[in-house]
Description:
This is KANL3/Tex30 alpha/beta hydrolase-like domain-containing protein. By secondary structure, this protein is an alpha/beta fold. The protein has one domain (2-205): 3-Layer(aba) Sandwich (Rossmann fold), CATH 3.40.50.1820. It is built from seven helices and eight strands; from the N terminus they run βββαβααβαβαβαβα. The protein has an eight-stranded mixed β-sheet, with helices on both faces. α3 (75-90) packs across α4 (107-115).
Amino acid sequence: MTLRVREIATPAGMARAHVERALTAKGTVILGHGAGGGVDAPDLVSLRRLVADGWCYVRVEQPWRVAGRRIATPPKTLDAAWVPVVEALTNGRWALPRPLVVGGRSAGARVACRTAATVVADAVLALSFPLHPPGSPEKSRAHEAALVLDSGMPLCVIQGGRDPFGRPEEVRAALGDGVEVRSVRGDHSFAAHPEDAFDAASAWLSTIGG
Length: 210
């Protein structure tokens, strides 16, 4: 596998895409990081093995992270940066192959859900979707994930069984039968068993591949 890093200009500053390509790719997975970490999160690193499954795999660093800031910018800014990154990776000379699966972990999953229709994705993969702030189930973000389902796209949520931002059963109850929810060991970070995230993602992606 060959890792190439591409810098992409966005309205929020320079983003950075870490691109790994299979020799004969059957599709592309583009994932963003969370609000408190970067592309070296254990689950995002574990998913690099998707290249061996025949996928192009891209981890995207948002401009705030590239600039060295510690605090994520507001959601509208994150969305405004994400869209041109995905467009740059799927058009022109890069033109990574379809089907196109977008997603991310935590805040990155929210960004992907909100913008999936805009970037004309084929499916969304959400790692640790933050359904609600810890201890505040009334502040649901289910409507963001529902945008994917309303657009007719497949949505897979890989959720830790002890996630304080929403356990797997909460996600299922909030989004209904249209969402594929895969429960894995751990809490919001998957740090102890990142391989579980890969196993769940690989199994689901086998139903999406071109």
